[in-house]
C-alpha cells in the first residue's frame, strides 16, 4: 500500500515538475533566441537580475487563458505571457510583474491582466513597491473587449495605489495603445534606448491620418520621451542598465507612504566644508554657473541621482542623501535659459515635489531664478496654469522644506520657489542673493522712465540708477530684515547648515485642511 501510495504521489510530483518546467520555457527556445537577438533579456532573466538571489517567489505560474476563439484553443501557454511574484531588492521587499514577449507577444488579456491585478493588490495590502517590466504587443485582439477590461482594471489599481506605494515602470520593449496609460500613472518610467518605445497610436496609423512617415523610434523611442515629451524619467543603454537604475532609485524611497525613506549611513563628515562653493557665483550677474556642482558638493559622497535629466533642463530635480537622510532636490539651472521657469520646467518640478511629499521625503530647493519665461508661446501654451502647478505643489507639501537662495530670486518666481510665504520652513541665503520684483534694468526703466528720458545723458543716468537699485536689492539683507530669510551664511557652510536644518525639522508635524482632494490646476 505504501509503495502504491508513493508511486501515486511521485506521479503527481512529476506532473507538477513538468508543468513548472514548461512554464519556465515561456514561448520556447526559438522565441527566447529571437529575444536575445533583439538585444533584450527574457522576462525571467530580467527578474533574476533584479531580485536578490533566491528570494523571488512566483505566483500564478500555471495560469493560462481560457479563450476558444480565433485559434487560441490550440495553444494555452502557461503563465499567459507575464511573470508575477514578490521578492527582495537589496533586502527590501517588492512586488513585480514582467511581461514575456516570447508568449503571444506579451499581449495582455483576461488572465494576464488578472495576474497583474492580483500582485498589485498584494502590494497595496502589504505596503511594498510595485515594479512593472513592460514588454508587450498590447491588447490581445483575439479576446476583444475582455482585453480592454483587463487594462482598465490595472488603471484603476494604478490610480488607487498612487501616493500609497511607489510604482516604477521599466519599458523594455513595445508599449503601445492603451498599454501606455498604466506606466503614465506610475511614479517613474525608465526606458531602454533603441529597444523600447511608447505611443498611443503607431507609425502606420500616424501615416494614414497625418501623412507623417515616422519610425517607432522617432515617434516614441527613449530619446523622444526623455528629451521632448518628458514621459520618461530615466533612460538606460540596455536592460541591465535599466535594472541598475531601479536598484539605485529604491535606495532613496520608502516602501509605502506610512514609512520614512531608508537611511543611508556613510562616512562623509557631517561638518565638511564646501570650499569649492565659496567663489562659485560669478561677479557678472548674467554669467551662468552649474547648479549641479552645488548639489553634488553638499550631497553625501557627492552622489546625486538626477531625475528627468534630459527634459526641461532649466530646472534640476533628483535625490541626494544628506547626513544619511534621503532628500529631494529642486534647483534652478543658470546654465540653461538662465534658470527661468517655463511650462515644462514647472510641470517637471511640480510632479517631483508631489512624489516626495507623498512619500515623506524632505525637500531642498536651490534658487537662482530670474522669473517666468515671457512670450506668446508660453502664454498661449498655458504658463499661467502650469506655473500654478509648481506653486500648488510647494504650498500643498507638508514635508520639511528648506530653501537656499544662491543668487537671483525675482518676481513671482521668488514666491513660487518655496518661499517663506508659501510654507518654506527654513529659508537661507548666500551673501550673493538678490531679491526683487525684477532686475535692475527693467525696474529703473519703469520707476525712472521720465528721469532717464529728460537726462542730458540718458545712458549714464540709467547706469547710475541701476547701480542705486542694485545697492538696494542685489543683496539679501532687506529680506532678512523682514524675516523672509532665516539666516545668511557663506557658501562653504552650506552642507553643515542643511544637515542641521533637516535634523531640526525631522519631527515636523503639518497637516492640510481635511478634504477629499484639492483641485490642482491641470
Can you describe what's shown?
The chain has 522 residues and is of the alpha/beta class. The protein folds into three domains: 13-249, 2-enoyl-CoA Hydratase, Chain A, domain 1; 275-433 and 475-504, Alpha-Beta Complex (2-enoyl-CoA Hydratase, Chain A, domain 1); 439-473, no CATH class. The chain is built from 20 helices and 17 strands. The chain has helices at 2-24, 29-37, 43-50, 110-126, 145-161, 181-185, 203-210, 216-220, 222-227, 239-249, 291-298, 343-358, 376-381, 383-396, 411-416, 440-447, 449-454, 458-473, 477-481, 494-504, and strands at residues 57-59, 82-89, 92-99, 130-134, 167-171, 174-176, 188-192, 197-199, 234-236, 305-307, 315-322, 325-332, 362-369, 401-410, 426-429, 434-436, 487-488. Strands 10, 11, 12, 13, 14, 15, 16 and 17 form an eight-stranded mixed beta sheet that branches. The protein has a seven-stranded mixed beta sheet with strand order 1-2-3-4-5-7-9, with helices on both faces. Helix 4 (110-126) runs parallel beside helix 5 (145-161), helix 12 runs parallel beside helix 14 (383-396) and helix 16 crosses helix 18. The longest helix is centred in the N-terminal third of the chain and has 23 residues, at 2-24. The radius of gyration is 27 Å and the shape is elongated.
